[in-house]
Every structure is written in structure tokens, then in C-alpha cells.
Amino acid sequence: MPDIIARVKTAGARVLHQIGTVEAARQAEAAGADVLIAQGVEAGGHIHGEVAMLSLVEALAARSTLPVVASGGIASGAGLVAALAAGAQGVQIGTAFLATVESYAHEYHKDRVVAAEAGDTLRTDLFVLNWPAHSAVRVLANSTTKGLGYRPMGHDPDQLPREVIASEGARPIYRYSTDSPIRETTGNLEAMALFAGQGVGAVTDIPTAGERLRAILAEGRAVLARLAEQGRP
Questions:
Q1: Quick one: angle between helices 53-63 and 77-85, nearest 10?
Q2: For 162-196, what is each residue's pLDDT tens digit?
Q3: Does residue 233 fall inside a structural domain?
Q4: Does some domain include residue 28?
Q5: 47 and 111 share a domain?
Q6: Closest by alpha carbon to 230, among 176, 222, 37?
Q7: Which of 6, 91, 163, 183 sits most deeply, having the most CB atoms within 10 A of its CB?
């Protein structure tokens, strides 16, 4: 990793490195990263660690000299304020922008995100065919995950069947792969990996990305104003 970071920085770019543990953050800082993205276990998609976002941000803010960006479960102004209060200098938001007009996600995926609550997501390594074993992701529960019972983790990609359930043009998509449905995907979209973080309950519509950003910022300002009002004698 140090060699790669050095090449990137030599080309004049900054390196924002996403981590899920304090140890990974230490290694990234030693390798020359410019910004640490602290990804909590609440995040949708592939997850690096097992620690909640606020706990990880607070730990890194106390230990690292690098700017910290919070990631995982943030989909509202309240989440933004909480992350900043924990010591983050910024936030990385995924699920809330998946459900926007510009997003290349399939409309089915967007609709599932809008209809979901935080309890509808789960962390599992079942969707692992394209990745090494034990690569955890957070997804919306569906017909594929309902067969897990009490065993969401511990799946070996070499032991999973290769069953085609959808396609992206001429490319087949298998059950248990990490592919999520995009605009061109056809087939059994419901059974695919529908990535979503635990902040999904705050996502209730599909606006433009600009509208989503302005709404989050407006809510964040309102939260700060309310807190300031509560602190007055």
C-alpha cells in the first residue's frame, strides 16, 4: 500500500483511505494517506470492520492527526451533526444518494431503499462470489437472505452454487454475487444484493442529488439551532 499511495501522491492527487478499525487507520496514516474515512458497521455495501461509526470516529479523532470523514448510517442532517460532534471533519454518504434521480441504481433498488427501515438491513457474507471469503456486506433482507436463519456469516464462495438469476446485457449475474441491480439489469432483481446502510429509514423519497444534499444541510442547520436553543438559560 505505501508504494501505491506514493505513486498517487507523486501524480498530485490526495489519498482518502477508507478503514474500519483503529489499527487499519494507523497503517494507512503510516503509509501516507491524507484523509481517513472511518466506516462504521452501519454502512451499506462492503464493510471493513465491526465497530459503530460514532465510536470509530471518536477513537480516530483522539488518536490521529489526519482529517477524519465519517461513513456509515448517515442519511440525514441529524446524522451529519452527530458525526461532526464525534470529531469528524466531514461525512461520506452512500445510501441516501443511491435513492436519487441521477443514481445509476435500478429503480427497483431505489424503491426498496425508500420503503425500508433500519431493521430491514443485515450484515452477511452470503453475497461473496466475486470476492474473497468472509467479505461482509450490508444489504436489505430478501428471498436470498431469508434462508440464512441464524447464520448470516461464514459462507465459502467455493461452496455456493452458480445459479444465474439475472443479466446485465450479455453478462450473467449469479445468485450470491456482489452485483447489485443497475439500470440495465434484468431478471430476478429481488434476489440480488440490494446494498443499503442502517440510515435507510431516513430515506423516504427519490429527489435529485442536489435536492438531497440541500435537505440534509437544512436539517443539520435546524438540529444545530435546536440544540443552541436548548442550551440557552
A1: 30
A2: 999 999 999 999 999 999 999 999 999 999 999 99
A3: no
A4: yes
A5: no
A6: 222
A7: 91
